[in-house]
Write a structure and sequence with these properties.
alpha+beta; two-stranded antiparallel ribbon; 213 residues; Multidrug efflux transporter AcrB TolC docking domain, DN and DC subdomains; single chain; 10 strands; 4-stranded antiparallel sheet
């Protein structure tokens, strides 16, 4: 979305691919474990190096932008043997699923129960209008309800810095207007209407140039 910088989720379950390596099949195809890991890293920018478990027989991979579908992982070339390419599915079993969660998020309302939740954080780019970005994000979320967001999922806004910034800006404008009117009235009482008109015009032009520049 234009104007946004970072979008992150907390509590969401990510899909992972578990690569269960077979030492016998690796040896038969002449593929070393480090060679396999480098091949996976080359094909996926977010592969977690060092996530080898179970006696060097499993690697947890999180598919990156290069892999459009998890099924494509098995067709990756991880080396050469006897002049022929060796595919990952020839030396490993590939399982798809979700990893063990490390972050849990719950949502609760006063007088209501507690339900599992997923937090979506959207940050704006420097210099962008926080109010406009927040409104655009909320509008987009509303469009996705019932389409990408299932009908049974409730969406709640827990923090909106755009609305907070708008509220503070409105309060500041109200205080500036009150202070300006007070000055104009004081000048009118002490110096006359003409002077008050000049001061009032100067204040209005200054505020307009400052707020709408």
């Amino acid at each position: 979305m234009p104007g946004t910088r970072n979008v992150a989720t907390i509590g969401a379950v990510q899909s992972t691919v578990s690569v269960l390596l077979s030492p016998a099949r690796l040896s038969a195809h002449g593929i070393a474990l480090d060679e396999l890991r480098r091949a996976l890293q080359a094909h996926s920018q977010v592969v977690h190096a060092g996530a080898i478990v179970a006696d060097d027989r499993a690697i947890a991979v999180q598919a990156g932008d290069y892999l459009a579908r998890p099924e494509e992982l098995g067709d990756l070339v991880v080396g050469m043997h006897a002049g022929r390419p060796v595919y990952l599915q020839a030396v490993a079993d590939i399982e798809y699923g979700a990893p063990e969660s490390t972050h849990y998020v719950s949502y609760a309302q006063a007088g209501g129960g507690i339900a599992p939740a997923v937090t979506l954080e959207v940050a704006k780019k420097p210099g962008e209008n926080a109010v406009e970005i927040a409104d655009a994000v909320l509008e987009r979320v509303a469009q996705l309800q019932g389409v990408l967001i299932p009908a049974g999922v409730d969406v709640h806004v827990t923090r909106n810095y755009g609305a907070t910034a708008n509220e503070k800006a409105n309060k500041l404008i109200q205080k500036l207007v009150f202070a300006s009117l007070s000055v104009i009235v004081l000048v009118a009482l002490t110096m006359g209407r003409r002077e008050a008109f000049v001061v009032g015009a100067a204040v209005v032009l200054t505020l307009a140039a400052t707020l709408f520049a």
